[in-house]
Amino acid sequence: MIGHEPKELLKTLLNDYKMPAASLSKITGISEQVILDFANGHNIQSSITPTEMMDLIDLVGLLVIGIPSTDANERVSAITQALNNEFGIPVETISLFSNLECEDIEKFIKENDSLSIEKRYKLAVTVLFLHYIFK
């Protein structure tokens, strides 16, 4: 079982999931050395702001705990709902971009296993790309 200490989660991300510290640096804006220092148990509080520290901890937790604890269908459903709720993108728009029926998408949001693999793939590619564009 993975420990929930931020330093241990970061070690898991770096070692078990093979996430390069350089990539985390690009994503967070925190220097690679500070990230490695944190993973090795050094005090980095003077090197980054409290907000940067919380953002790093949140990101690492999401990657190490969040992704493995939700299946792909739940993630696609959540992203679809986020496009609708956060950005006001109607299900109809998503259906037109993905070449799926509105009813199919609405049912998928309620029952994640309601679509065939082909339709889930179409929806996933569409919503992930839309989410990428809008973020």
Give keywords:
single chain; 135 residues; mainly alpha; 2 domains; 8 helices
Q: Structural class of the secondary structure composition?
A: mainly alpha
Instruction: Please give the largest β-sheet.
Output: none
The succession of helices and strands, N to C, reads HHHHHHHH
The chain-level mean pLDDT equals: 94
Helix content: over 70%
Describe what this molecule looks like in 3D.
Helix content is 72%, strand content 0%. With 135 residues, the protein is mainly alpha-helical. The protein has two domains: 6-69; 72-134. Helix 5 (72-87) packs across helix 8. It is elongated.
Chain-wise SSE layout:
Layout: H1 6-15, H2 21-28, H3 32-39, H4 50-69, H5 72-87, H6 91-98, H7 102-110, H8 117-134
Helix pairs in contact: 1-4, 2-3, 5-8, 6-7, 6-8
Brief characterization of the structure:
It comes from Peribacillus butanolivorans. The protein has 135 residues and is mainly alpha-helical.
